[in-house]
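User: I'm putting together a teaching handout on how multi-component assemblies are represented. Below are the sequence lines for each component of a complex, exactly as they appear in our records. Could you produce the 3D structure of the whole assembly as structure tokens, so the students can see both representations side by side? Please keep the chain order the same as the input.
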Amino acid sequence: MKVTRFDPSDSLIIVHATIWGPHGHKGLRLAFDTAATQTHVVPEFLDEIGYGPQHGDRITSITSALGDEPGYMMPVAKFSALGFVLTDLRIHVHDLPETLGIQGLLGLSFLRLFNYEVRSAEGRILAVRI
Amino acid sequence: MVESTISEPMTWAQICEHYPDEWVALVEIGWVNDRDFDFRTARVIGHGSRREQYDQARPWRSRYESMGHYFTGRVRAPLAPLIFL
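Assistant: Of course. Below is the structure of the complete assembly, with chains in the same order as your input.
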């Protein structure tokens, strides 16, 4: 079992993640979101590690806090969060408001591979790979 | 165009104090483990808006394969859900 800590005083549960791309790897912070079907990342972050719309395999549209946002689905070579590493995780790429202070959402496309327990008062997530 | 500079190693508390409510680009991050957002020190190569810190960090890409991009302020959850599907 892996234990990930978060700040329980934040207004969202924020976890650290890393994405590897053709130009290296970068750390980012994502909101832990069991209401999100997909794992979402903002496009300008992915641009910096060598990904772009040309890597997308499906054009999408969502309604977010910014309004109707165009986006796309794409696989990333390597992704880690909660202490686990996945390869070829498909993510949803679209923009989020800069003022949120996060670069995306850790959604069920990642989380459904694990059993996890969120201890909000303690600021801890306990996760086990299924 | 903002000049590309690199800071001395700083703790996250020091970074937040120097660059309040800004996005920062970090390198040489001394992670404590592979799960938490905890590091001993890191060096700042960009700061400002989300776009500005990416622009300042770009010249360092050939030198640093690994970077981190983070917001120093409090996360501000919207009143409405982030995404409606």
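A couple of points students might notice: The first strand of chain A starts at residue 2 and ends at 5. The first helix of chain A runs from residue 43 to 48.
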